[in-house]
Structures are given as C-alpha cells and as structure tokens.
Amino acid sequence: MDIAIGAHVDQTDPVAEAQARKAPLVQFFLGDPQSYQGPEIAYPGGAEALRARAEEAGVALYVHAPYVINVATTNNRIRIPSRKLLQKHVDAAAAIGARGLIVHGGHVNKADDPEKGFDNWRKAIEATDLKLPLLIENTAGGENAMTRHLDRIGRIWDAIDGTEGADQVGFCLDTCHAHAGGNALETVVDDVRRITGRIDLVHANDSRDDFDSGADRHANFGAGRIDPALLASVVRDAGAPVICETPGGVGEHLSDFGWLRSRL
Predict the structure, then answer these.
(1) How do residues 163-178 score in pLDDT, each as one tens digit?
(2) In this model, does residue 142 exceed pLDDT 90?
(3) Which fold has domain 5-132+147-166?
C-alpha cells in the first residue's frame, strides 16, 4: 500500500531533512512551540525561498502550531493571544506553501461548562482567515480537553458546522494520543470519519504508556504499548499522509519508516 510517510523535523532546512529520510513530506514548528512570540522562518532566504525549494524538490510541508495555542479556553488572557497567534501561523504556513497547519484542541478550566469551549472554537474559526487547511488534532490527556474523547470532537464539529471557513477545517489523527486518551484503535478511524467526514493527516506514534493513561509520551514503533498490527491497521485504514513524531533523528526515523512499511 502506497502511503506517503515522513517525520517531524527541525525547521532550519526541512527540505534537506526530508531528503535525508527519502521522505515526500515533513512537519516542523515555525519558532518556539512554547512561546507566544509568533512564527519565525529560519530557512535562509525566508518564506518564498523555502516554498520554491520545497516545490522544486517535490516535498510537502506541514506546520505544527505552537502548543500554547488554546482557542477553547474561557480565560481571555490566553484565548485572545491564542487566536492572534493562530492567525499569524496560518499566514506564515500559507506563505511557505504548507499543505496544512496542525493545532491541538485545547481545553477549558475544571469549573467551566465544556459548551463554552465548543462555542469558542466556533468563534475562532469565524475570526480566522483560513488560507490553508487547519487540521485539529486529538490529544491524549486532560478531563477538560476538547479533543481527547470522541464525543467532544463531535461537539466541536457540531459547533463549527455552517461557519464560514468550516470547509477548511480538517482532522489530524494521532495514534499515541488516541491510545493514551482511551479511544479504541480498532474502531477509531471509522469513529472519527463518522464525526468529521475526513482524516487529512496521521501522526503515527507508538505510546510509552498504557491505554487510557492520559500520558502524551511517544515511542518508536515496537518499543511502546500499542499492538503493532493495530497501529499499522490505523495507518492503513486512514489512508492519509503520515508524519512520524517518534524520537530520534534520521537513523531512527528511517528504521520507523521501514517498520511501518513492512506492515502496510
């Protein structure tokens, strides 16, 4: 089965990182993932040069938004800067010709009604000029998370349904997060498609921790707690491009690619 497989890499020269892995796609951050400082293009020559280089090399680029973005929260001091930072990353990702911007679902505070979080997602989609697909990713932990459990993912999709820009909202399925978040990998692809109608990208990762642990700790394939056949079946059934966010560099990633391809 011919599924495109790549990895999360350093952003300084993502095309060279892709070529070192013989990968047709890569994912990277634009700047510090723990900072509100805004996107930074580290590639020499800037966004236009990176876009041209990626197109010339036939490498698809994906950008992962900073972890600090939380557009669901009721805390204005987090939600408003998060929306601004999201727009900046949409703009920067579009400028380099990225195929998508991946963002976590965020969470609300313990005392909050989750419905406020779903409505804040609607407001965020309405407020953002989506110049490329925004891929919302399922997350592993937190009882107040917006995208750990399938029912809450469904409520986000309900909330944004009919909103201007909703057609640009897609889904990124993370295997480690699904496993650690307590979602059955046997059915998760069908479950997600029933809710969202689509899976645009797969983050293929083994998990260092047990099912429903809530722990977001990735492992190389075969070194974690996910059944190998089950992990491969999720990738196969999703049929979407794959990014491995597994530990290590070129050697470890090539080993992981081989492990996965041998099971597809």
Answers:
(1) 999 999 999 999 999 9
(2) no
(3) TIM Barrel (3.20.20)
